[in-house]
Amino acid sequence: MSELVPKSNETYTNDPLEQTVATVVPIFFSIIVVTGFFGNCLVILVVCVNPQMRSSTTNLLIANLAVADLLFVVFCVPFTAADYMTRIWPFGLYWCRVVQYLIVVTAFASIYTLVLMSVDRFLAVVYPITSRSIRTEKVTKITIVALWIIILIVSSPALYVHGIQEIVEVNETYVMCMYLELDYISQSTYQICFVLSSYIIPLVVISGLYIRLIMRLWQASNGGVRMSAESRSGRKRVTRLVVVVVVAFASLWFPIQTILLLKSLGWETTTPFTVMLQIISQILAYTSSCINPLLYAFLSDNFRKAFDKAVHCSSRYNHYSSNIPIQRRLSHGGRTSSTTI
Fold first, then answer.
1. 2-323 fold
2. pLDDT tens digits along 219-247
3. 330 Ramachandran zone, left/alpha/beta (phi>0; psi -120 to 50)
4. How far apart (Å, rounded) are the C-alpha atoms in residues 318 and 303?
5. Under a CB-based contact definition with an 8 Å cutoff, are residues 319 and 312 in contact?
6. What does the domain layout of the chain look like in residue ranges?
7. How many degrees, rounded to 5, is the angle at CA 276 between CA 274 and CA 282?
8. How far is CA 103 from CA 151, 182, 210, 267, 326, in A?
């Protein structure tokens, strides 16, 4: 994961380029930090303060995604920006390993929360009645906690494969935070495993779930499945939001994941074009940590109204559930089914 940060001794080919990067890139990263911090805090706030929103499995997963994004913009992005501004790593060995570890943790937390959101949508649409005992607030919270425990353990190798290394260039010596060449695992093997586990495999699983889900919705729209028009509309609305979030994540991370994969296979160039390509790709990937609140605001009336209430600190906020229909009860075969968001 250290290769997400183009090191100055590896990629900067002339002083003007290095100076431009050291000035411009931190500005973009600062925008990401500010918007990501306030946006994700707002998402967490509106879910946590409203009991009805917390009772929705999709909303709980959205809040968990916001937590992962918030950790990323607070503990990872600022130090990456600092790494661009200086030709040395000024934070020491401990924080070098911690930052690289948190990059891996938050990347896994984000993509596998999206997997859980896709599983939740799949169960809600394809098995709406039998999945009710699974799609509960308690089960979702347990699943989220289990997910974080697994990720924290699985990501632990990142603590050992990164460290401080001295790079000697002509008459100067630079101290860099980077991947350490180890006997038991090569950098290419590490990067390939990361790309597969944090991007390709999860997206294949998500794609399979949505293919089946879309087939179910298509059958329902053509009368093959008994479902009220209101129920179909509610499920399509929530599913559309989750799909957009997944597509946004996949699209924004695609360039840098492709570069990581190519570099792990031996591709390595140091031209100004490739340097800028890596930087733009990294900015796009980091943008994914602050774009989700905007998607919720555009695609969900309930989140948009909740954001408005939170921003204006309205005294009516405590009566939010009586003013905004967060959870709509839908008829389904004599029983009720709730739509989220």
1. Rhopdopsin 7-helix transmembrane proteins (1.20.1070)
2. 766 555 555 555 556 667 777 788 888 99
3. beta
4. 15
5. no
6. 2-323
7. 105
8. 12, 20, 28, 23, 34
